[in-house]
Amino acid sequence: MPETQLKVELLSMTPNALAVIYTACRQCYSREDASEIFKKAVKGIPPIEEQEAFVRKIVASGHESVIEHVSFTFAVSGISRALSHQLVRHRIASYSQQSQRYVKIEDFFYIVPPSIAKDHELKKIYENTMKNLQETYKIIVNKLEKMGIKGEKAHQDARFVLPNACETKIVITMNCRSLLNFFALRCCERAQWEIRNLANAMLKICKEKLPAVFAEAGAKCERLGYCPEGKFSCGKMPLKEKVLGKK
Predict the structure, then answer these.
(1) What is the longest distance spanned by two Cα atoms in the chain?
(2) Considering 56, 81, 186, 190, which one is annotated as catalytic?
(3) Does residue 68 sit in the same domain as residue 185?
(4) In this structure, are 184 and 196 located in the same domain?
(5) Is 186 annotated as a binding residue?
(6) By residue range, what is the domain housing residue 15?
(7) pLDDT in tens, the chain (247 residues)
């Protein structure tokens, strides 16, 4: 099968997310029960605009524990195994990934890096390599099945020839605090291009669904107003030393 493209969909998010965060914030400073604060918040007491302004202020102040009560669940496809290995390093999250043991990865889709895609000769070599690996996978599975090794037992051994380019599918759940951290690291120009594309796609959804939390989210420099990467800076933002007046 041919190359494939990134696809990100929001499966679900915490209902009444703004009210949940507002309630968590207020509970820290109120004698009132959280259940009562929540009931009022859902009814628009105080008005939604005031709740949003309050949550924005809390997030800007760095009081991020209260946003952990809200989570987003995404369905992601069209990503490589190379990306998923990076993704699962973000530990405060839940992942359910397509298994190469229980799913027969015959005629797999694959991801082509932009640097290879734009060079005709390289792309041809790359595509031929993918086709050869697809055929090799089939040969191994078929041979193992003839030997009486079937199903996942055949798949789990044949998958050793599958490349990092092989497409995978994954369901991701992260709370808002983890998402802010994920975006800060992976929306940065220094992040690998594929996971940066994923982060930007997820960020777009989060900004649309919960702007009170994510309006200012993105690469670290977006929130800080300066780049903390020193000599590795992409040049988009002034360096930390310049902004803070240090040499």
Answers:
(1) 71
(2) 186
(3) yes
(4) yes
(5) yes
(6) 8-75+168-220
(7) 588 899 999 999 999 999 999 999 999 999 999 999 999 999 999 999 999 999 999 999 989 999 999 999 999 999 999 999 999 999 999 999 999 999 999 889 999 999 999 999 999 999 999 999 999 999 999 999 999 999 999 999 999 999 999 999 999 999 999 999 999 999 999 999 999 999 999 999 999 999 999 999 999 888 888 888 888 888 788 887 777 776 5
**Is residue 200 situated within a structural domain?**
yes
Cα(196)–Cα(190) distance, rounded to whole angstroms? 9
pTM of the entire predicted model? 0.92
Q: Is 175 annotated as a binding residue?
A: yes
CATH number reported for the structural domain that contains residue 33 in this entry: 3.30.1360.170
Q: Provide the strand spans (E) within the chain.
A: 7-13, 71-80, 94-97, 167-175
In a domain, 132, yes or no: yes
Residue 5 is assigned to a ligand binding site:
no
159 is in an annotated binding site: yes
Q: Tell me the pairing of strands 7-13 and 94-97.
A: unpaired
Instruction: Assess whether 186 carries a catalytic annotation.
Output: yes
Tokens 């050793």 belong to residue:
160
How many domains is the chain built from?
Answer: 2
